[in-house]
Design a protein that fits this description.
By secondary structure, the chain is mainly α. It contains two helices and three strands; from the N terminus they run βββαα.
């Protein structure tokens, strides 16, 4: 399922992407920052996890949010690479 939703003519490496699973659209760079924040939150949560329930919450947040966002970013970069290889006006500014 394609995730590139709308290309950004000012910054071809920051298109709007449709998050896998139908959670809306967001710019690629913003999604990357959100992933960084989620990783930091998981690290902080893991520092205070003391029992099974704490770790189950961390596991749930990782599976549902972080991995889904990561899958979307990876797919977006694959699709950008395909556009770059295809050539034409839409490929301008897309980096290897």
């Amino acid at each position: 399922m394609p995730v590139l939703y709308k290309l950004n003519p000012e910054d071809p490496m920051d298109p709007q992407v449709a998050i896998i699973g139908g959670a809306g659209t967001v710019s690629l760079k913003l999604l990357e920052k959100r992933i960084q924040g989620r990783i930091q939150d998981l690290y902080t949560s893991s520092q205070s996890a003391h029992d099974e329930q704490d770790w189950e919450i961390i596991q749930y947040r990782t599976k549902i949010h972080l991995l889904n966002d990561l899958d979307t970013v990876v797919e977006a970069y694959k699709e950008l690479e395909q556009l770059r290889q295809k050539g034409g006006p839409q490929s301008r500014g897309i980096k290897k």
